[in-house]
Every structure is written in C-alpha cells, then in structure tokens.
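Hi P.,

Sorry for the delay on this. The queue was packed all week, but I finally got your sequence through. Input first:
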Amino acid sequence: MAIFYRGAGIGTWWHKHGPGPKGWKAHSPYMEASETRLMNHIAEGSTASPFISLTRSYGVALNYARNSGLSRPNRRRRAFVWEIELEEPLPDGLRLHDPVKRIANHVPHPLATIPYQHNGAPTCLIGLIDITQEKLLAQICPVPPNSNPPYGPPNISLGLKTLIFALRDAEVLATGVIPKECVRRRYDVF
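Then the structure:
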C-alpha cells in the first residue's frame, strides 16, 4: 500500500472538481499520455492533460493547497489536501507513471545540439527548486572571456525543468480513474 496526496488551492480545477461519483479523472482524460504532454503538465502547469499529479509528500501537497490558488485559504474559504491510498494490483484502467524515469529515458545524447543540461551557474537550479529564488534564473551566465554571444540568462530545457520539478515535488502521475474508494480523506487547509 502507498499513500499519495493531492493539494487543491482555492479556485483550481481540483478544488472545484473533487472526486466525482466514480472517482477522480484528469482534466482531459482522453488525450494521449505522451512525453510532451507529461513535460507540459509538470514544467508548464498545463491542466489540459491526461495526467493527475500526485505526491508522496504531504508537505508538497500542503504547499500547493496554500499557494497555487486564486486566493489564500482562510477559515471561511478553505483549500484542501486529499489523501489517496493505492495498492497492487491497481484498479482497472489506472496507471501510475514515474515522470523522472520517463523523461530520463528520453533525454538527448550529450553531443546533441540542444542538450537537456543547462549552461548557467549552479545557483540557477536553486531558482527552479525554490520559487522564492526565481531571480537566480535571470542572472547572467558565466562565460569564458571574449565569448560570442557574450552574456545571457541560462538556457534550461523543458526536459531538465520537468526532471527538477518532478524530484522537488516527489511527483507521481496517474492516468485513468482513481476510484472514489481510494480517496481516504480530505484535510481542510486554512
């Protein structure tokens, strides 16, 4: 058995659409679960996807509930963290995807013209991990003297951004329907 969590900030899709009569399904459940859609879902926050984001971390889900909505939760208008319990065998039609494994298997070769690695200082990764440090993503990249082009912000590929966000958020993706009986409880957040 494994416990997962789903944070739902005020006004978000998951806040408005909790588990229905049959359970939880993605915003766009009939789309293909491709790597591109997976990367856009995680790195760009696209809700038009066949994926349901889950996390193994209550702290991550709590952060999403508090900070991802249209307004901050309070005693009158609460956000939620949902607790989901899954075990083998998974319910029919439900699949879990490890985004780190999926993306890591498709990163470009080190000699590729557009690699998945970044060209910035080590601190640019902190800017991806900690949203309060986002300014680090705009810092000029160190380059050798007399380089052409001389300076610019770091190039961070969608693949690298996806890998970092998935690790940061202890993220697991689900496709299919998470049956209502797997949703064990809802924690109110205010």
